[in-house]
Design brief:
This protein is mainly beta. It contains no helices and 13 strands.
């Protein structure tokens, strides 16, 4: 356990921001090094009776876009059942559909497996995956393992990183 230098609240080891007052619990490293690993190209045999092109699928009626407020980056997502929000970690096999590494996710307290956006009963919901620094919808904390409905224009915060939800027909 560690103690917040601002409010003295007890915090779990490894927590970046105080759950009580939001204070930074330690200084994050200033420099991060990353390397790009080129994927292997594999030639796959063509199935015997495969059509030359895949059939065209009509676009889904509802589109989800995520705007990362700090970098003005937009992530447009295809319509599917769920999306993982977090930070990519190849060594641990974590590959979120919404990877916040390039948006300062580490420094903002985004967990590798931070939250899920789930399509359920004709609407999107967000579920916090017991993240260290919390998930918030319009400044209201989502309890660990609980779900909160998402609406067009909602502000989603993962740790201290703000995202805006855009849902369009």
């Amino acid at each position: 356990m560690q103690r917040c230098p601002n409010c003295q609240a007890q915090q779990l080891d490894g927590t970046i921001f105080c759950a009580e007052c939001g204070a930074l619990l330690f200084s994050a490293p200033q420099h991060h090094s990353t390397s790009l690993i080129e994927p292997k190209k594999i030639a796959l045999p063509k199935p015997a009776h495969a059509p030359e092109t895949a059939p065209t699928v009509a676009p889904a009626e509802i589109r989800l876009s995520i705007y990362i407020l700090s970098t003005n980056r937009q992530v447009r997502l295809p319509h599917q059942q769920q999306f993982l929000i977090g930070r990519r970690d190849d060594a641990r096999g974590i590959h979120p559909e919404i990877d916040l590494n390039e948006d300062g996710g580490y420094d903002a307290g985004v967990s590798r497996r931070h939250a899920l956006i789930i399509w359920k009963d004709d609407h999107y919901e967000v579920e916090d995956l017991s993240s260290a620094n919390g998930t918030f919808v319009n400044d209201r904390r989502v309890a660990a393992q609980a779900r909160q409905p998402l609406h067009n224009g909602d502000e989603l915060r993962c740790g201290m990183l703000g995202l805006r939800i855009e849902i369009s027909p």
